[in-house]
Amino acid sequence: MTLTTEPPAETTTTELLHFSDVAMTFPNGTTALSGVDLTVKKGEFVTVVGPSGCGKSTLLRIASGLTPATAGETNVATKRIGYVFQDATLLPWRTVQANVELLAELNGIPKKTRVAEAAKAIELVGLAGFEKQLPRTLSGGMRMRASLARSLTLDPELFLFDEPFGALDEITRERLNDELIKLFTEQQFAGLFITHSVSEAVYLSTRVVVMSGRPGKIVETFDVPFAYPRDPEIRFTPEFAELAGEVSHALRKGHS
Amino acid sequence: MTTTAPPTGPVATNPKIRTMSRASDMPKRRGGRFPSWVPPVIVFIVILAIWYFVSYVLLDPARSFLVPAPHVIIEEAFLDPKVLGDIMGALGRSAGVALTGLAIAIVIGFVWAVAMSQARWIERSLFPYAVILQCIPILALVPLIGFWFGFDFPARVIVCVMIALFPIVSNTLFGLQSVDKGQRELFQLQKASRWTVLLKLEFPAALPAIFAGMRISAGLAVVGAIVGDFFFRRGEPGLGSLISNYQSRVQGPELFAAIIVASLFGVVVFLVFGWLGKLAVGRWYDYSK
């Protein structure tokens, strides 16, 4: 795991994820995605917003290899992929420490190394002191932190987030957004984040991609000009409001 | 957050039975000021009172052997070293049969369930037979088992196994299959092998259901041991044949004493397996849910 605190390098040409004309039709005939072109480069944090059921999550499943696309080309340039699910998906019988070690353990990393890596990741997400706790004793936000830490142990180059904070309350969600920005600037992964919150999308990302309803298509893309690290207060600036307004507008247009 | 929610509860388990020992955790209703052990003790005293009433008032003295009063049972059976010795010897033999049968049922049931969880076609081929096993009145098979395997220890153990097998199979299978989809995908993303998924995900996730199944099966194994004994009256008597003997010799107090011991044995087995389950998974799994 890299622990450098430099800001992410200027957008380089390293494409970590590339979708070209990707489509997904389920066996029952439903078309979830059609004609999706999307590239995520190193140093980018791309957020996909769209109405429920527009295939946003399917996009992540295709990127991670959980579900193969039915058409188009998907290129993933790294094997180090972090995947954060909607739920924390912690194993209830494992302590926080053992949960965070899980992925390294499944990848056959020796005990000593993975213990150290897990400890570092736990520290990074602010869960130090909770290592011996079981998931049932943690709050929703803390479980999500543990889930983030678990993926961090893989030192991901490409980090996929499937509405990870959707179930959390507003305050917890905003705090975790800030922590995520901090992780992004420190760890320099490429992020692909799914959400249905416009404000979360604009706040987190370098780029916001708006998808239409079924079948999911990319209808508009917005570059977010704000520099990292971001001050939570930018949410209340006119520039932020204007951009969020445009994204919302595109979202409504795509939905109708 | 719903992911970490444990399996909703093993099949073939009555939730009321599972929460029985947790009276103290239940929401306070009326009468919550007594310690939790007080109400059952009051009920016990009421039962004793009714018992005495039946024994001394309702029954003609000449027929009071039908329901001997509790103190008579204690004096004439439990305090009689010969009777107590007979009952305890029988208890030991029945316990040996029940626990051997249970152990074999656990092993067979577990292997059976794991095999079914590994492939859909194995499940499709084998599950109907688990259900059939459950539907056959085992009592109807007992004479056949005696016919084939003789009337001694092995035949009795086979009866226990057949009676105790189904809850282990169905609960283990249910537990293995109740794993959360997200957790499965988590393993899938790391390209974990079938064996790793079984060992590190499915088996631990199934433990609460497995223990719930074991507790049911333990109770059934006790029933099996006594039933088997009723039929196969060979060799030293177990609780079943002892009860049957006392009944045919019209030995009321002894009959009651043997029945009480058999019941207590069932209760103890149930409690021990409940306790074992709590010991194994109580740390992370809340059985009262």
TrEMBL record, chain A:
Protein origin, superkingdom: Bacteria
InterPro entries: AAA+_ATPase (IPR003593), ABC_transporter-like_ATP-bd (IPR003439), ABC_transporter-like_CS (IPR017871), ABC_transporter_ATP-bind (IPR050166), P-loop_NTPase (IPR027417)
Domain ABC transporter: 17-238
Pfam families, per database record: ABC_tran (PF00005)
GO MF entry, a single one: ATP binding
CDD domains, alphabetized: ABC_NrtD_SsuB_transporters (cd03293)
Keyword vocabulary terms for this entry: ATP-binding, Nucleotide-binding, Transport
Keyword RNA-binding in record: no
Coiled coil: none
Keyword Nucleotide-binding belongs to the record: yes
Family annotation (PANTHER family): ALIPHATIC SULFONATES IMPORT ATP-BINDING PROTEIN SSUB (PTHR42788:SF13), TAURINE IMPORT ATP-BINDING PROTEIN-RELATED (PTHR42788)
Protein name (Swiss-Prot/TrEMBL): NitT/TauT family transport system ATP-binding protein
Species this protein is from: Agreia pratensis
Automatic annotation (TrEMBL), chain B:
Residues of the ABC transmembrane type-1 domain: 91-277
Gene Ontology CC: one annotated term: plasma membrane
Chief location bin: membrane
Pfam family, one: BPD_transp_1
Localization per record: Cell membrane
Top-level taxon of origin: Bacteria
Residue ranges, annotated region (Disordered): 1-28
Membrane topology: Multi-pass membrane protein
Gene3D superfamilies named among the record's database cross-references: MetI-like (1.10.3720.10)
Keyword hit for Membrane: yes
BP GO terms, sorted: transmembrane transport
Keywords attached to this entry: Cell membrane, Membrane, Transmembrane, Transmembrane helix, Transport
Segments of skewed composition (Low complexity): 1-15
Transmembrane segments: 37-59, 95-114, 126-149, 155-176, 197-227, 255-276
Family named by the database record: Belongs to the binding-protein-dependent transport system permease family.
Name of the protein in its database record: NitT/TauT family transport system permease protein
Organism: Agreia pratensis
